[in-house]
Amino acid sequence: MTAERYIARSSAIAARMLGGEMMVMSAADSTFFTLNEVASTIWQAADGRTPLSEIVAGKVCEEFDVDREQAQRGADRFVDELSQHGILLVSDQPLMETGETDSLPSSESR
Amino acid sequence: MSLLAEMNQKALNLGLPISVHLDITYRCNERCVHCYLDHDDHGEMTTAEITGVLEQLAEAGVFFLSLSGGEVLMRRDFFEIVERARQLLFNVKVKTNGVMIHEKEAARLRRLGVEQIQISVYSHRMEVHDAITKLPGSLKRTIRAIRFLKSKGLKVTIANVLMAGNFSDQPGVIALARELGVAYTLDPTITPKMDGDTSTVALRIPGSDLKQVFNNQELVGNVEEFCAPPPAPDEDIMDGFPCSAGHTACYISPYGDVFPCVQFPLPSGNVRRQKFLDIWRNSAQLKEVRSIRARNLPTCSTCAHVGTCTRCPGLAYMEGNMRGPSTADCEKSFQRTGIPSANMLARTRVGSAGPLIQIQTLANSSPITLFKMRRVNCE
User: Fold this and answer.
1) Which chain A residue has its CA at the smallest distance from B8's CA?
2) What digits encode the pLDDT tens for the residues B19-52?
3) Residues within 8 A of A (CB atoms), B 97-116 only
4) Binary contact (A16, B14; C-beta < 8 A)
């Protein structure tokens, strides 16, 4: 069984909802993303305390007509990509809210 | 279309302000010769008022926030403002002269996740830069600030405003930017003062220098493409609008006044009296700006450059008519392509006073100022 993952939004980003899509830009490398409604749902639920699998089951599958396994695979890919840019913080333990850019974890711990 | 351009288009379609330039003070520790502001405090917004405005901007959908002045660090609550802006998840860009930035301030800006710092540098030579800022030692302090900011991992851009007095130092500023490992941008636009005084316009670089800029591959990329004659305008061009001012962007002064752009002093409301969104949605002035299309411009709609000109409606407004030509941009189009604008041709035909290159007809400040600048340049 895969270890549980907890995700939290980094504070080193800029973000704003624009017409149903979330715009996110990393202050670390200026990468700019737009998130569709499903991705935005995961993003908004990324509180560091709720396991990703619970977000998928409780939010994504509840709000969108999507198969649980398919949604989990998509969520994993989404989390992997955003964590590479320091936009999402990922841990196998619940995360505290981050304060400033310096509190970003090193690439090894992402 | 890039993702950012797509988002801008989306904001435009939705009628949302995606970018706001907020001047938090007009006070400054420099007295730059070309500055369009007066530096007295006529009743700046308080910290609470500014943070309240930031909350309204976030609610309105603003993503890009430029904090500028005056010199932003003249406000003791500057970091409090930045901190609130970052809590509200704005993409924050700070414009500063850097004079008051030491290691501690640089580290704090980095910790707060500021996206970019833009710093004005007029020359790589102290005697030229400091003569423009009128603050002895300013270049040294500015360069020191850039080094601190870089060392903390911040993205820094040197903004090089070009005037007759510092034009020849431009390669030196580019070399300085390279040495410091920061980006470089130049701006040949010198605007009249916000009170209508046009004396600063005399500092603009002459057309021949503009031509030199436009033919510099290092600055414009593909010169042939950049200086190509304009294509014939089509329906899309004629239905287009000149820039984002009032459409997806606006400017807010330290006194809460809202304008379409920092270069477009058309008062459109005040956030001390009205909610920002009320102004954005209902201001008669902003509605008027939004209603203008290229085909509505009496002179420019007939101009060969109508589809490629950088016509600034704010500069046109300062010349007396927001639907009229901006002669500085006529000059740029002419120097870029060698093809005179419709405005230039019309003026030549009616034999109006003034030469073809109208940028010079605006110059009404003392020539002594110009000579002073040039002398400094030659030292």
Assistant:
1) A18
2) 999 999 999 999 999 999 988 899 999 999 999 9
3) 110-115
4) no
Residue B187 to residue B205: CA distance in whole angstroms: 11
- pLDDT per residue rounded down to tens, chain A (110 residues): 567 899 999 988 999 999 888 999 987 778 888 999 899 999 999 999 999 999 999 999 999 888 999 999 999 999 999 998 889 999 999 987 544 443 333 333 32
What is the least distance, in Å, from the CA of A2 to any CA of chain B? 33
Query: Contact at 8 Å (CB) between B253 and B259?
Result: yes
Task: Using CA coordinates, name the residue in chain A closest to B13.
Answer: A19
Q: What phi and psi values does residue A87 have, to the nearest 5 degrees?
A: -85, -35
Is residue B263 a contact partner of residue B312, using CB atoms and an 8 Å limit? yes
Residues from chain A that touch B155, judged by Cβ atoms under 8 A, are: 30
CB contact under 8 A, A16 and B155: no
Rounded to 10°, the helix B126-133/B138-151 angle is: 100
- DSSP structure string for A14-78: EEEEETTEEEEEETTT--EEEE-HHHHHHHHH-EEEEEHHHHIIIIIHHHS---HHHHHHHHHHH
Q: In whole angstroms, what is the distance from residue B170 CA to residue B156 CA?
A: 18
User: Please, what's the b/e burial string for B311-338 (b: 16 or more CB within 10 A of its CB; e: otherwise)?
Assistant: bbbbbbbbbeebebbbbbbbbbbbbbbe
Pairwise CA distance, residues B94 & B122, whole Å: 18
